[in-house]
Amino acid sequence: MTNAAVRIRGLWKRFGEQVAVGGIDLELPAGKFIGLVGPNGAGKTTTLSMVTGLLRPDEGTVEVVGHDVWRDPVAVKARIGVLPEGLRLFERLSGRELLGYTGRLRGLPGAEVDKRATQLLDVLDLAGSQHKLVVDYSTGMRKKIGLAAALLHNPEVLFLDEPFEGVDPVSAQTIRGVLERYTASGATVVFSSHVMELVESLCDWVAVLAAGRIRAAGPLAEVRGAHPTLQDAFLELVGANGRQAGSDLDWLGGGAPR
Ligand SMILES: Nc1ncnc2c1ncn2[C@@H]1O[C@H](COP(=O)(O)OP(=O)(O)OP(=O)(O)O)[C@@H](O)[C@H]1O
Question: What are the residue boundaries of the ABC transporter domain, all occurrences included (predicted)?
Answer without folding.
Answer: 6-236
